Amino acid sequence: MTRADSAIRVRGLTKRYGDHQAVAGVDLDVEVGEIFSLLGPNGAGKTTCVEILEGYRHRDGGEVEVLGVDPATADAHWKARIGIVLQSTKDFAELTPTEALSTFAAYYPSPRPIDEVLELVGLTDKRKTRGDQLSGGQRRRLDVGLGILGNPELLFLDEPTTGFDPEARRQFWGLIESLSDLGTTILLTTHYLDEAERLADRVGVIADGRVVAVDDPAMLGGRGAAAATVSWRGPNGRERISTDAPTRVVRELADTFGGEIPELAVSRPTLEDVYLQMIGAAT
């Protein structure tokens, strides 16, 4: 990947807090236009890495470029090119979405039109509703609206659906996908592996201060080539077999049973399976 293809380029990033090595030589590339999800347990160094990329925290060593600029020395023009949606934000209980967006628009040189932002985040019908009258999902949509108000090239999303019910989460996923369709590069941190699998073009796993794997969610940790498990209900109860040729096994079982196979299931390792294996091996 060339520098021109990279929205984020990190080489040998390190950060220490006293005796604790929080980040221990991270290398990372995020391509322009992709949704990249960074996964890792609490204390793995994920938050520190992202804060350095955002320009909020200084690093001890390594090279970092975000939109071609070192965040440690970035100016206001660079800051206007990124958007940040934190895990928790201050509620604007007394302000309507229109008022909140209008207030913050003054900080950007070329903000998106307020009506456009409201439409993108699905709050047009709530534009005149006070913040304390919005649901949790609607308030989170307003957070994203504030994050994209400056028409950013790169958007940082930190645990955007924490606390959402399943329906609200899926609605929010549609919003993220629509932003990606508009060409926004998105760095997503999440503890929901189904969220990463649904949204991310690629995922990176960080453990013990190091990136231990980067790949398409479907291929991470060799998932695509891993043996399949075929299970069924046999005469003596549940039976299963691990195989690299599940189609052949199912065909043979169908011949054995003379048609339908009782309670047939075919599965491969899930993203959760390989993620837990990776973070376990790294600690």
Structure report:
It is a single chain. This protein is 31% helix and 28% strand. The chain has 283 residues and is α/β, with parallel strands linked by helices. It has two domains: 6-222, 3-Layer(aba) Sandwich (Rossmann fold), CATH 3.40.50.300; 227-267. A six-stranded mixed beta sheet has the order 5-6-7-3-8-9, with helices on both faces. The protein has a three-stranded antiparallel beta sheet with strand order 2-1-4, covered by helices on one side. A three-stranded antiparallel beta sheet has the order 11-10-12, with helices on one face. Strand 1 (6-17) and strand 2 form a beta hairpin. The mean pLDDT is 90.
User: What's the structural domain tally?
Assistant: 2
How far apart the termini lie comes to 30 Å
The tally of beta strands, per DSSP, is 12
The succession of helices and strands, N to C, reads: EEEHEHEHHHEHEHEEEEHEH
The mean pLDDT is 90
The largest sheet, given as strand count, sense and whether it forms a barrel, is:
6 strands, mixed
**Remind me, CATH topology of the largest domain?**
Rossmann fold
The name of the CATH superfamily of the largest domain reads P-loop containing nucleotide triphosphate hydrolases
Short description:
The protein is of the alpha/beta class.
Question: Helices, strands, pairings?
Answer:
Layout: E1 6-17, E2 20-31, E3 35-39, H1 46-54, E4 61-66, H2 76-79, E5 82-85, H3 97-105, H4 114-120, H5 136-148, E6 154-158, H6 166-181, E7 185-189, H7 193-199, E8 202-207, E9 210-215, E10 228-234, E11 237-243, H8 246-257, E12 265-267, H9 271-282
Parallel strand pairs: 3-7, 3-8, 5-6, 6-7
Antiparallel strand pairs: 1-2, 1-4, 8-9, 10-11, 10-12
